[in-house]
Amino acid sequence: MKSGEQFRAVIVGGGPVGLTAAHSFALAGIDFIVLEARDTCCPEAGSSLVLNPASLRVFHQLGLEEQARKKSAEHERAVLVNYSGKTCKDVRPFTAFDQSVGQRPMTFHRQDVLKILYDNLSGENRAKILVNKKVVDVRTYPDAVEVTCADGSTYEGTIVIGADGVYSKTRGFMRKLALEASPNAAVNPEKPYTAYYKCMWGTVPVPPGLSPGDHLDCHSDLGVSSMFLTGRDRGWFFMFGLLEKATQERKDYTEDDKEAYAQELAELPMGPGLRFKDIWHTRHSAGMSNLDEGVLDHWGWNRVVLMGDAVHKVTPNAGWGLNSGIQDVAVLTNLLRKLLKETPTPGAVPTLESLENVFRAYQEARRENMQEVFDYSATQTRQSARDGSWTGWMHWLVETVTSVVPHFDWFMIRYKASKLVSAGHALDFLGGWEPFSGAVPWAHPIRPLMG
Ligand SMILES: Cc1cc2nc3c(=O)[nH]c(=O)nc-3n(C[C@H](O)[C@H](O)[C@H](O)COP(=O)(O)OP(=O)(O)OC[C@H]3O[C@@H](n4cnc5c(N)ncnc54)[C@H](O)[C@@H]3O)c2cc1C
């Protein structure tokens, strides 16, 4: 293996984070290739994705905002019911986002996000997304990396980026290679995430009485909760449940498991006058998994670096998983672009030391914020599906007291959620424009576009 003449990033995984990286790298002038295991980057799998204003700001910079607005619904109404189905709150707190950061979160069908990303790559860049390329080996050399796929094909590059999700193979190779290089190397655990909750999700037609942008929640003290979101033309349910025992093992739920769980939660309220049994039979599709949680301590090693669910995994109640991955993309793109621009000989491949410095700076820029996002997400899950522990009762007490405080949700969004969102990075070499501004300043402002 010898050094390539030009820098190239081999991105493992053509999910939403890998595809966002493809757009960002293309605009930054960073050569890349994406290797995706499935036969398509846009499968009809998963449920909704809520993009927060920080992600929408990046999408705007990538030229994707217009398509995104056509395919999504802005958050409008928040309804909370208790386990008996009684409405505790029916409010419209999301105007707080309009005032704070100038933009509300938007709800998409997951496949639509993938299609927006994939379809809007130029022909030249789309040709760099290769499907049916399941990565089975990663090797590092003094000047390069080599990635091998299940079909026997190999790809060389300067770095390899693991955007291959919660069960990341790249993460495993990073660990293995670091330990081979030094048995005392500081590495991530082999199984770095732990699940305390499970979730079944699915797509259904919008039930009567609901409108685009509705967000319904049902909380309970029995270790279960439900959430229902409406988009432009469909709705999505999320049925959360506390696992009997925390686990680090992967669990693949079967159709029978889903049916049994649906029967178990049939009477769980989803919103005013709506129970789970009313919508389960209308589903187009449903999925189920344990909700892994964790933030890794080592985001990169040598020529290998991780982003998205491969390096942090949060529960989905607060909708921060992909939004965090988009932040990873923005920060890593900015740092790599700067490095490549500053390389003494134009076009020369940066040294391993300079790449490792970039990976360190990337982790430093993201790790602390990610922990805050992680804690926020974990708390939301535990406040919703409360257990019988004292923390469960504390969550109950806080929720009961705050549910009678006028405009409480508005204040939480204005002073807590907006603060997290406004910490968001964007691509520092591209401009942006107005709606993404309000009373809360962005920690990393972008240059306003002229005209
Ligand atoms: C029910 C639910 C609701 C959610 N809602 C939201 C939300 O509203 N907002 C939000 O921000 N986040 C949400 N999330 C989280 C979000 O889905 C993830 O954070 C996001 O998908 C992570 O993207 P990723 O690209 O890192 O990983 P993935 O989406 O897992 O994509 C990884 C890709 O890598 C490919 N791959 C895997 N292994 C290999 C290999 N060996 N070789 C090549 N390719 C490989 C996979 O096929 C896949 O395409 C939700 C999650 C769940 C479960």
From TrEMBL:
Q: Does the keyword Oxidoreductase apply?
A: yes
Signal peptide positions on this chain: none
Q: Cofactor(s) for this protein?
A: FAD
Q: Which InterPro entries match?
A: FAD-bd, FAD/NAD-bd_sf, FAD_mOase_fung
Q: Which Pfam families match?
A: FAD_binding_3 (PF01494)
Domain FAD-binding residue range list = 9-343
Q: Which UniProt keywords apply?
A: FAD, Flavoprotein, Monooxygenase, Oxidoreductase
Q: Does the keyword Nucleotide-binding apply?
A: no
| Gene Ontology molecular function: any one | FAD binding
Tell me the protein family, please.
Belongs to the paxM FAD-dependent monooxygenase family.
What protein am I looking at?
A: FAD-dependent urate hydroxylase-like protein
Q: Give the originating organism.
A: Hapsidospora chrysogenum (strain ATCC 11550 / CBS 779.69 / DSM 880 / IAM 14645 / JCM 23072 / IMI 49137)
Q: Tell me the classification of the organism that encodes this protein.
A: Eukaryota, Fungi, Dikarya, Ascomycota, Pezizomycotina
